[in-house]
Amino acid sequence: MNPFQKGFLEGIIPPPPMTVSEWSDKHRRLSSKGSSEPGPWRTSRTPYLKEPMDCLSVTNTDVERVVLMFGAQTGKSESGINFLLYTIDHCPAPILCVAASLDMVKRMSRQRLEPAFEETPVIKAKIAPQRSRDASNSMFIKEFPNGILLLTGSNSPAGLRSAPVRYLFLDEIDSYPSDASTSGGVSEGDPVELAIKRTSTFSRKKILMTSTPTLKEFSRVENEYLTSDRRKYWVPAPCCGKYQLLTWSQMKWENRDASTAKYECSHCGERFDESHKTSMLRQGEWRAEKPMTRKTAGFQMSSLYSPAGWLSWPEIVEEFLRSKDDAPLFKTWVNTRMAETFDESYQSQLSAEEMLEKCEKYLPGTIPDEVVALVQGVDIQGGGGTKDERIEVSTWGVGLEEHMYLIQHDVIYGDPHQGTVWEGLDVLLTAEWEHPNGGRLKVECTAIDTGGLATNSVYNYCRARKGSGVIGIKGSSQSGQPAIGRGSKVDLNYRGKPIKGGVVVYSVGTDTIKDVLYSRLKFNNKLHFHAQTTEEYFKQFTGERKVLKKSGRGTQYVQKKNQNVEALDTAVYAYAALNHLYQRFPRGKFFQIFANKLLNSVNSSKKQRLKSNSKVTKKSYVTHW
Ligand SMILES: [Zn+2]
Questions:
Q1: What is the mean pLDDT of residues 550-559?
Q2: How far is CA 286 from CA 96, 209, 282, 299, 487, in A?
């Protein structure tokens, strides 16, 4: 065949169809700008990407949607770029690529796409170099023979309503807003649905969705994954050759030393280090948990699979040790390293029976060694003349690093407009608890809910006990509120001006505090319950769950059906009381200040011990849990 014939034939005979991985191995080059390993792309470096990429090939007609729920440092973004470049070169058509926001699009375009175009010769030849006024190649539009690549943000309804497209790449879908509308309050609808509508006129379309997951129940990528065929990557262990999934529970290390991290085979129990990872990944295979429906192939993979030299097991363990006690950091670790959603509503999964196992050895009404201060939360039920009127009081001890100990929970029955219930509260307010190391503790701050039907009676009580650590509070379920806000004066004179020395009511971020309490319940043992804590108490403590707001923006706590939640509310108020104390005794010094105070009272009580030996007395109408 002479060169003329060859060139002529190339023009009329379509090239044999390739898969995305074949194309990438042949043409794709990684730029030194965006990659730590510049040079030719090698699928063998991340062998687990071959199957998801090949589902996006024109040769695969079984799959229309590919969902990647991956951890960081696994190459998921590069596989998305391979998909875009492959379509530009190999099967040109209109393509839409969506990032979370227009700013993210700019970054993606500059830092990832343009270097990829530049480094990959077959693509560079097809896309005109970017000139400032060239409409065919801008930050948001890239034209090429027989197609166009449009880039937009999920917050841009106009961009999402662009022309029909055959190929769609939705990057980091868990960071999209629930509504594409950016301003004016007009609902534009779900950005993912808007974008997918663009593909409706095409047959043989391909849709790629990728993300690290976020919150349980609200994670788009998890919802997509759960409706897919749910593939997971199985690898053979070096010890016995048995195939297994790499899971966090098999990761072992010694004495908080991340450098000792090893993987324990779930079959034979032998431990091995990362040096085996490369061969394990090479021999791995995706196995689906479900039959495929809706032509959707789903892939889930944690960063434990990250190739050698990217993110190591010791690094992941190190990050775990650093983040595990801090709810927001730990959430990020779970999302980006384990590629799992984070369940903030742990209480909805944990039954009261399971909670009973959390009971510790100390008895109600006694103070554990570790406690240096006491706070109380008070909830008012009734005030409208119904039966079962009562106030409920939880007394919590505070230890080092905000460990909290339920000392006792009391219910005082009676009409909150009458004096008797308040006398009962006085007993608890002024009680002294003996510390096992000697000395006595009194309640430092009592926070009482003013929100119910007995507001004025609460005001009266707070007014009369100003200066003895009693504060009025009002819950705000708005998200992002501080645990306790600034106080506002509620006692006004006849001109409507605040009265000096009147009652101050503090706003309390109830959802903020519930996040704190529930994450502590789940991830570290910072909440302690006495030996006789009842199932009913735990039912109430776990009686709320987080749901998506009606507006679709953000989440909020709601009570489970027919479930009282006084145990939870009083704990929330007690935590607000503790945060109120931080205004006078800074959080960082709190433990030391009160430990010193206790020590002083030990010394003085030694002198007093001979004089009085009276114990805390309670009136008979105080029911004790
Ligand atoms: Zn083994």
A1: 67
A2: 28, 18, 12, 8, 57
Instruction: Map tokens 């006398």 to a residue.
Output: 423
Q: Give me the mean pLDDT over the 494-511 stretch.
A: 87
Q: Does the predicted model carry a pTM greater than 0.85? A: no
Q: Classify the C-alpha dihedral 454-388-474-410 as positive or negative.
A: positive
Query: Does position 310 have pLDDT exceeding 70, yes or no?
Result: yes
Rounded distance from Cα 276 to ligand 1 centre (Å):
12
Radius of gyration for the chain, computed over Cα atoms and rounded to the nearest angstrom: 31
The CA 243 to ligand 1 mean position distance, Å, reads 9
Q: Ligand 1: distance of its center to the CA of 232 in Å?
A: 19
How many angstroms separate the alpha carbon of residue 263 from the centre of ligand 1?
10
CA of 280 relative to ligand 1 center, distance in Å: 12
Q: Tell me the per-residue pLDDT of 200-252, one tens digit each, with 9 for 90 and over.
A: 999 899 999 999 998 877 789 999 999 999 999 999 999 999 999 999 989 99
Tell me how far the alpha carbon of residue 277 lies from the centroid of ligand 1, in angstroms: 14
Of residues 186 and 289, more confidently modeled? 289
* Closest C-alpha to 188, from 155, 164, 151: 155
CA of 366 from ligand 1 middle (Å) equals 49
CA–centroid distance, 267 to ligand 1, in Å, is: 5
Other CB atoms within 10 Å distance of the CB of residue 604: 11
Distance in Å, CA 235 to ligand 1 centroid: 11
What integer best gives the mean pLDDT of the chain? 87
- One-letter-per-residue 3-state SS of 353-416: HHHHCCECCCCCCCCCCCCCEEEEEEEEECCCCCCCCEEEEEEEEECHHHCEEEEEEEEEECCC
DSSP symbols for 202-269: -SS-EEEEEE---BTTT-HHHHHHHTTT-EEEEEE-TTT--EEE--GGGEEEETTEEEEEEEEPTTT-
Q: What letter represents residue 77's amino acid?
A: S
CA distances from 584 to 126, 144, 302, 429, 577 (A): 67, 66, 45, 20, 12
Please give the structure tokens belonging to residue 91.
């099967």
Measured distance CA(116)–CA(481) in Å, rounded: 43
Residue 284 Cα to ligand 1 middle (Å): 15
* CB of 503 closer than 8 Å to CB of 492: no
- pLDDT, one tens digit per residue, over 427-483 is 999 999 999 988 899 999 999 999 888 899 999 999 999 888 999 999 987 777 889
| Distances, alpha carbon 191 to alpha carbons 85, 129, 161, in Å | 24, 31, 10
CA of 271 to the centre of ligand 1 (A): 8
Distance from the CA of 298 to the center of ligand 1, in angstroms? Answer: 28
Mean pLDDT of the 34-55 span:
92
Distance 264 CA to ligand 1 centre (A): 8
Residues whose Cβ atom is located within 5 A of ion ligand 1: 237, 239-240, 265, 267-268
In sequence order, which residues have a C-beta less than 8 Å from that of residue 183 and are 6 or more positions away? none
Neighbours of 274 (CB within 10 A): 18
